[in-house]
Amino acid sequence: MRSPRKAQRAINQMVLYLGVAVIVVFMVLYLLFHSFHHSRMATMEKLVQNIANQYEASIDLKMTGDLRILETLGSLLNISDPLAMEETLRAQTLDDDINTFVSIGYIDSQYQAMLCYQTDDSIHQVDMQDYPEVTKALSGKTVITDLIQDPYTDTYMSYYLVPVRRDEQVVGALIASNHVIVLHEIIEDPILNSGGLVHLIHDDGTYILPPRETLVPNQTTNVFETYGAQQQVLDRLSNHQDDIEPFHYMNEDYLVMFKYLNINDWYLICVIPQSALGTNYFVLFLLILLLSIVLLIIFGLFAFYMYRTLTANSKELSRLALHDQLTGLYNTYRFKQEVKARLDKRPSGVVILNIYHFRFVNELLGYSQANEVLMMIGQKLLTMIDPEREIVARDTKDHFLLFLQGDELSIEERLISVMEDLRTYYHLHLKSNLLHFNAGVKMIGDGEEDVDALLSHALFALNEEGDDPEREIHFYDASLQDEENLANYAETYMYEALREGGFELFLQPQLDMHTKRVIRAEALVRWKLKNGTYLKPNQFIPVFERNGFCCELDLYMFEKVCQLMARWHKEGRQMLGISINQTRLLFYRDDYVPRLKALVAHYEIDPRWITIEMIESLMADLPDKIMQVVDQLREVGFRISLDDFGHGYSNFNTLQNYRVDELKLDKGFLSNDRSDTKRRELIVGGLVRLSRGLHIQTVMEGIENQADEDFVQIVGCDIGQGYYYDAPLAVSEFEKKYQEKVVSQ
User: Fold this and answer.
1) Rounded CA gap, 289 and 275, in Å?
2) Where are the domains of the chain?
């Protein structure tokens, strides 16, 4: 028999559960009631909007129709014959079938109005210079006025004014008036037969039409005195926005709709009792209560079932949460937990083993047999590890994760062995050689505690072929990721650097090989980072070549060269020619030559001082197009240099078909192998003599030592360039070191 203490504990638990259940029921009731109320309000607001839209359409239809009548009359009116015009106006005023105008008139350009009224057969002449609305109409605008006191009847009416044109010129305006009762008839249509009201107001709340009835008696000046308004409502009205606000008066709830009409900043206000829009929802509330009780019972039964199920299957749920269902291995989550607990075990590494092109295996073998392959691989991997010290898990469809202890060499040997064992086993059992593997490995270093970062680095190594694409096992190399990070940095900040002057002009001297004097320079670019360090071109130019930004950069550097030469000229310095490399992409742009021409004209630079360098391989792409661009550049006055001649497969037809001024020989001719010097002398010397015969200068770049200089002088090159003479220099340093010497000579 249960002890009293245990029985009391059981009762307390039951009371607690019951209390929780009651709280849940009330919360559900509250949420359901709140949801129903919110839905009901949204429905009522939508209905009020539809009603306001109908009134807006009626007002717009009336005014649009009246304006069209006046526009038609204006086109037919014989303004050159006053008598005929009077008859036309009288006829229109008396024609009740066409319009409801109280009066129609014509205003000439001198503000003199000829008005005809329904109540009077005579024509009235009125001076309307004091009416700003008339000025707007005579300036060509169609005008609908607020209520204005009629100059003849002294009653308040709404006027339409339409400009009258002859030969596209405004010569006058037609004016017509409507009695206020016309608008009253539109807005006093009953709303749902429920006591709703409609008003026309300005955006400051003043009535356009004096209301014949308001919800609050004796409030007929400003609508906000009647229905109230918060500041946010006033702000929305001043910005011509629609709004719906609740209003309570005399134990009745209303919805007040403010509808902007786009006519003289008018607003339409619909005031509708909420009782006319909704239904008595006491019955609905009872239904909701009944539904809540049913839901509570269902919830209780479901909770009891779930409790029994979770209790009975907690171990299975734990296994499913931490293991791969197909192979039974740890999943990624459990792998991370286990690795984190073993990070102090060194040397060790994290491995991602990939089944190469597993999707093809899946397609060829079918889903079922491919799953058997995965299970086989999982079991074989378990046999190769020390279960007390190492871990194996399955990540995605074709990735297995391993934590192995040992140095790089031992881990690599173990992986090679297991890959070979897996291939052999697969071949013996399935008679196929489809199975291939590759792996990415991240060795765990001191202080590394982020398992996600370790896996990310291993994945990076897996996807990085490096210099040997046939290699199956790749160890993470931080320098490779540094290169990728640098490329990402370049693409992220290239436009910012261009805007802020981060790309700087450097000059490398070019020497006359006969006199050893600096006669020219090559323009090169360096990227100065915000920390003051520089990126070299080979760190960012390949990225810009891929994404096309090199076009913007090369044009920017060309303008920098123009600015520099303009400064030299202004300061009275001796001019030095400058050669500048241009990307192949620019030669395909139709605006390329005009832009260069415009830049040298803007900075008043003689284009003969500038040499455009183009790579030889460019000639093979679109030879006719490139030939045309080269000719255009030479016509402007630029010198053309053929860069890297001799790199790859050079074609002497290039020298025949293209008129160039300079041949820049590839530095590959300066071989470190001195055994073939004579052969190189014959080849390069022949090129130099051939170029000289074609009146083409030759430049040898990449001169790095005395032997290179001796070779260049032997073959007779005209100009030399390289680190043997100097590295690329900032402009200020170049000027101090070379240009001033040139000036002094």
Assistant:
1) 23
2) 77-182, 320-476, 503-744
Q: In terms of Cα–Cα distance, which of 702, 710, 722, 719 is closest to 681?
A: 710
Helices (H) and strands (E) in the chain, counts: 24, 25
d(CA 41, CA 94): 49
Residue 417's identity, in one-letter code, is S
Q: Is 302 exposed, middle or buried (0-12, 13-18, 19+ CB in 10 A)?
A: exposed
pLDDT the model gives residue 183: 73
Local structure of 595: helix, strand or coil: helix
Helices 314-322/332-340 angle, 10° precision:
80
pTM of the model: 0.46
User: Residue 399: what residue type?
Assistant: H
Q: Are the C-beta atoms of 200 and 62 separated by less than 8 Å?
A: no
**Residue linked to tokens 């590759």:** 438
Long-range contacts of residues 702-709, Cβ cutoff 8 Å, at least 24 apart:
702/667, 702/670, 703/670, 704/670, 707/674, 708/670
Which element (helix H / strand E) includes 319? helix 314-322
Could you name the CATH architecture of 503-744? Answer: Alpha-Beta Barrel (3.20)
Q: Which amino acid does the sequence have at 697?
A: Q
What integer pLDDT is reported at residue 343 of this predicted model?
Answer: 86
The three-class DSSP label of residue 637 is: coil
Q: Which residues of the chain have pLDDT under 50?
A: 1-7, 282, 467, 741-745
Residue type at position 360: F
Cα 441 from chain centre:
36
Rounded CA-CA distance 565/473 in Å is 55
Q: Spell out the residues 6+ positions from residue 229 whose beta carbon is closer than 8 angstroms to its own.
A: 205, 237, 245
| 288 burial via Cβ count (<10 Å: 0-12, 13-18, 19+) | middle
Give the bridge partners for 525, in sequence order: 505
Per-residue confidence (pLDDT) for residue 445, from 0 to 100:
83
Give Cβ neighbours of residue 263 (< 8 Å, ≥ 6 apart).
59, 63, 144
Architecture of domain 320-476: 2-Layer Sandwich (3.30)
The answer to whether 77-182 and 320-476 have equal CATH topology is no
The listed CATH number (3.30.450.20, 3.10.20.580, 3.40.47.10, 3.20.20.140) that belongs to domain 77-182: 3.30.450.20
Q: To which H or E segment does residue 125 belong? A: strand 120-127
Query: DSSP label at 206?
Result: B
Indicate the DSSP class of residue 188: T
Q: Hey, what amino acid is at 30?
A: Y
736 DSSP assignment: I
Q: Cα separation of 547 and 50, whole Å?
A: 53
Query: How far is the first Cα of the chain from the last one, in angstroms, to the nearest whole number?
Result: 120
For 590, phi then psi, to 5°, come to -65, -25
CA atoms within 13 A on the CB side of 114: 20
Q: Which amino acid is at 550?
A: C
Which residues is 441 bridged to in the sheet? 351, 475
Spatial separation of the C-alpha atoms in residues 504 and 556, rounded to whole Å: 10
**What CA–CA distance (Å, rounded) separates 549 from 422?**
48
Per-residue burial over 213-252, b if 16 or more Cβ lie within 10 Å, else e, is ebbeeeebeebbebbebeeebeebbeeeeebbbebeeeee
Q: How far apart are CA 291 and CA 36, in angstroms?
A: 13
Alpha carbons 268 and 257: distance in angstroms, whole number: 8
Q: What is the residue type of 321?
A: A
Length of the chain: 745
- CA-nearest of 387, 419, 417, 418 to 403 is 387
* Separation of alpha carbons 220 and 205, rounded Å: 11
Q: Measured between alpha carbons, how far is 578 from 565 in angstroms, rounded to an integer?
A: 9
Evaluate whether 354 touches 436 at the Cβ level (below 8 Å).
no
